[in-house]
Every structure is written in C-alpha cells, then in structure tokens.
Design goal:
Layout: H1 7-32, E1 36-37, E2 50-51, H2 84-112, H3 124-137, H4 152-174, H5 178-183, H6 185-190, H7 194-222, H8 224-233, H9 239-266, H10 268-278, H11 280-283, H12 324-331, E3 339-344, E4 350-353, H13 354-361, E5 365-371, E6 377-386, H14 387-394, E7 402-410, H15 411-414, E8 422-428, H16 429-432, E9 438-443, E10 458-460, E11 473-479, H17 492-496
Parallel strand pairs: 3-11
Antiparallel strand pairs: 1-2, 3-4, 5-6, 6-9, 7-8, 7-11, 9-10
Helix pairs in contact: 1-2, 1-9, 2-10, 3-4, 4-7, 7-8, 8-9, 9-10
The structure holds ligand MTE and molybdenum atom (MO).
Length: 505
C-alpha cells in the first residue's frame, strides 16, 4: 500500500541523517574549545552551569582562554583534537545544506498539503499521544490517527522536530554570529543574550540526539524492515529490499564520516577551500550588517557585580609581548614613548602619539560584547578613534583594498601555547570603515587598557569573532593586496591555523 510519502520527502529524510550527524559532531568540536555553558554574558570562571571537561581552572594567575581547549577524540567530534577552525568549517558547510534543505522541504510540505501529517488539528491529539506513550512502554503498538499513517505521538514529535526544534536551532545558531547578534540587537536581548542563546543552541542539539535515539528504538519496535521499506519506497511492500537499501545508506553515512574526519585531519586546506566555495557567498553578506549593539555602563563585565577594578574580570587571550622595547614601554606607562605608525598605500603616512590619538578620538567610546571564537564573552567599554577617521586622515590611494594591522607580539616567542611569528590581522576596506571598527586605548573608563587586553592600543572589530581584534598594535598599513604577506591568508591565525578572516560568524 502506498502511504503517500513523496520521493522528495524520502530524499530529505536521508539527507537529514547526514546533515544532523555532521552538525552534531562539528558542533561538539566547537563546544570543546570552551567546554562550558553560562547563563551570563560575562563568563566569569567558576560560574558555568555545565562543563564538559575534566580540566581544572587555574584560579590565582592570569589564565588565558587558549588554555581552556579540550581535545575530543576524532571518533566523537569532527575533526577531533581541538581543531576549532576546521570544526567550524564543517559546521558552516553543513549548515548551508541543512538550511537550504529545510526551506525547500517547508515549501514542498505547504504546497502539497503534506504538512497535515505533522500538525495536530485537535487538542485530543495531546491526550492521545500520552496514551500512545503508555502503549509503547507496555511494548504494544498504538493505533494511527484516523485516516493517517502516524499515531498521535509520532505526529506530535515529528511536528515538534520539524516546526519547533529546527527553526529554534537555526535561529540560535545564527545568533552565535557576532555580526548577526550585534546587528539584530533587540532579538539578541529578547533571547536572553549571547550565552543563553549558546546554551539553548546546545540544548537543541541534545533534543535532536534524544529524538534520534528514541526514533531509532521505535523503528526497531515497529519492525526495522517494514519501516525502512517505507523510508526507501514510500510503502512497506518490499521489506527485504527496503531494509537492505536503507542499511547500505546508513553504511554510506558512516563512510562519509570516516572519510571527512581523515580528510580533514590530513588535508585541512582542502576543507578550507570547500568552505570558502560553499560558505563565503552568503557569509560575505554579513559585511552589510553593521553593529548596532550598545550596552549600558551597568552591563560592563565586573560592574555587574560591583567590582572597583572591572577590567580584572574581562577574560584575556594570548600573552603580552616580551621584548625589551615593549617592557620599557610598559614600565614607562606607555604615555610618552608609544607611537602608532600609519603608512603603506596612503597619501600621508603619519605617526600618532597617545595624546594625539586621544584628541582625535574626541571622546568616542562604545560599550560592546567581545565574542571570542572559542565562545567566551565579556562586555567592555572601549574608548578609541574610529578607523574611518584615521583612514580619512591618511588618505588611502586609489586601488587600496585592505588594511593590515601588526602587533608588537610574536606568538612563538611570547605565548607557550603557540608557534609562528608576528601576530597580524587584516580587514577589507568595508570592514575597516564600519562604524564600530575602532583603534582603542582605554577600557571601562578606568584608564589605559590592561596589559593582558592589549595595552596601550588595540583594534576592535565588533562584527567579527574576537581573534581578529588584534592587541598590542604597533603599525597600521594600507595595502592594495594582502595575499602576498606571509602565507597570504590575511592574519596570524589564518596563516597558522584554520580560521577565515572573512568569517563574520
Ligand atoms: N596580538 C594578539 N592579539 C590578539 C590575540 C593574541 O593572542 N595576540 N588573541 C585574540 C583573541 S583569540 C581574542 S578572543 C581577543 C581577546 O581579547 P581580550 O584578551 O581583551 O579578551 O584578542 C585577540 N587579539
Ligand atoms: Mo579568541
């Protein structure tokens, strides 16, 4: 008997097995780099509501977030071994397919009237579902709803997954993007802020996994061969063939995971290329979403708990430069010795002292949320000068495309966790000109930025993940191409790891 499951629905059902398993595994990789869940956007150590690591937090010293990585096994997360950048690539590649598929599916459900299978039409369905549950617990088969293929419990749970859980996981996923969260700032607040959203996103994943397990158990209870025949042919008339084809399909999914994991661990740059091809066409649209997030002073991390020295609670990543020049600058409180160089492809190369920067900034400050790519967040009030003003002063020459920022810091030399050379970053001109792209020199109205957070001067990019907000800024250079600098990927983490400088997600 044909049960009326059209071919597109069966294809979609199979694709979702691939998408959701890839999303869960790559999602775990992302979770693992900061394996804690918080209610508060301040992510103060010791306040997590859930933790997925056995590492202890160091309490009494400067503890960089880089030290919070947990490396999960490649059998669990994709690709495993704490490779956050590559996990993110897979998450976003898969998201592209998953969301496209879900939208197509919704349109087809509506167009064909198939949606009726998933939406209850009477309140009785809920009490009926309760009875169905009891029936299952007694290992008996509940009856389908009148004129339907599904019983009440199936209708409600499938409907919930398709029409509630999926939009929620997409929404909370989208709001992990600093560009989206800071542009649609009202929705971010309505949803409870970045860390609550991250926690909900995690709970949605738990929801999928629970559904998956129960769904699988029920397939076996109802009869594996009959059920898989429905998934393959839309009817249960060819149970043996259906069972074989579906089982081969599951083996294919398994093979895909094994292949993707091995391929990623050996050929990371190829995965990066795939990501750039699939993800950049839509993620580049995010440059069009300037940050509109303005927090109140009372929201500042540390102020929320009445600390006098609020900057203490603002987490840090990376270690300050250790050169004699930088240490001398620090010992002398930066003030008289620091000069910021601005040069390259400009009409008027220049140097600016801290006093000059302060004067040019004319009191501008912004109170914003820092989104570390690992997942920690802090709210800080940054005083600084907009990059747009600096660019106007220096006058980029025609053909200038990017701005390159260089730090005093050398990662291999200054931070035991990393290898490689000078920390640098770059922004396309559109990003340099965004209203909240600033060169900051003061934090929380408490004077100079602390050494751990980039003293005396740092970059702030408010629509990007935190790693690009370069600290300990020494020089700004306007260029007409960045792909000939070092490895050509536009930044230290881009060159030495698998991060995309165009990734505003
Ligand atoms: N020079 C330099 N800049 C850097 C880093 C670094 O290690 N070196 N870490 C980046 C990362 S990963 C983050 S999350 C932010 C952290 O800023 P914070 O220390 O003020 O919280 O700085 C970014 N800028
Ligand atoms: Mo970070």
């Amino acid at each position: 008997m044909d049960l009326g499951f059209p071919w597109w629905l069966r294809v979609e059902h199979f694709l979702n097995i691939i998408f959701i398993t890839f999303l869960v595994r790559s999602g775990l990789e992302i979770l693992g780099t900061y394996p804690k869940l918080y209610r508060s956007q301040h992510t103060v150590p010791g306040t997590a509501w859930a933790q997925f690591t056995v590492q202890e937090e160091a309490k009494h010293k400067y503890y960089t977030v880089g030290g919070e990585y947990s490396d999960y096994s490649p059998r669990i997360s994709l690709p495993g071994r704490g490779l956050l950048g590559l996990g993110r690539y897979w998450h976003f590649i898969t998201v592209t397919g998953f969301v496209a598929c879900w939208i197509t599916y919704l349109v087809l459900l509506l167009a064909t009237g198939q949606w009726r299978r998933y939406v209850p039409t009477s309140w009785d369905t809920f009490s009926q579902a309760g009875q169905d549950m009891l029936a299952y617990l007694a290992f008996t088969m509940p009856q389908p709803l009148d004129g339907m293929v599904f019983n009440a419990l199936q209708q409600l749970s499938y409907g919930f997954v398709i029409l509630v859980l999926t939009p929620l996981v997409i929404l909370t996923g989208a709001f992990q993007s600093p560009a989206i969260a800071n542009h649609f700032s009202r929705i971010t607040r309505l949803l409870g802020g970045r860390q609550v959203i991250r926690s909900i996103h995690f709970l949605c994943m738990v929801g999928y996994v629970v559904f998956f397990v129960v769904h699988l158990v029920l397939v076996f209870l109802h009869g594996y061969l009959h059920e898989t025949s429905k998934m393959v042919f839309g009817h249960s008339d060819k149970p043996i063939l259906g069972g074989i084809i579906f089982s081969l399909g599951l083996l294919l999914v398994l093979a895909l995971h094994v292949f993707a994991t091995r391929w990623t661990l050996t050929k990371g740059r190829a995965v990066e290329k795939l990501h750039n091809l699939v993800v950049r066409p839509w993620s580049n649209l995010l440059y069009k979403l300037p940050s509109r997030m303005h927090y109140d002073r009372s929201n500042i991390t540390g102020k929320d708990v009445g600390l006098a020295n609020t900057t203490h609670n603002f987490r840090g990543s990376g270690r300050p430069p250790e050169t004699p020049e930088y240490l001398a600058l620090m010992a002398n409180c930066y003030e008289d010795d620091y000069v910021l160089e601005i040069g390259g492809y400009v009409e008027r190369p220049m140097t600016l002292t801290l006093a000059e920067l302060r004067e040019l900034a004319a009191g501008h400050s912004q109170t914003t949320l820092h989104h570390c790519v690992q997942g920690f967040t802090s709210i800080g009030r940054w005083r600084g000068i907009s990059m747009s003003t600096l660019l106007d002063l220096a006058g980029p020459l025609p053909g200038a495309t990017d701005v390159v920022y260089t730090s005093f810091q050398n990662m291999g030399r200054d931070d035991a966790l990393y290898e490689g050379g000078t920390y640098y970053e770059s922004t396309p001109m559109v990003e340099a000109r965004l209203p909240q792209t600033i060169i900051a020199f003061e934090l929380n109205d408490e004077g100079e930025i602390p050494a751990k957070n980039g003293a005396p001067v740092r970059l702030r990019l408010e629509t990007s993940t935190g790693f690009r907000s370069l600290k300990w800024l020494e020089r700004i250079e306007v260029v007409n191409r960045y792909d000939i600098i070092l490895e050509g990927r536009g930044g230290y983490f881009e060159d030495t790891d698998f991060y995309d400088r165009n990734q505003l997600i």
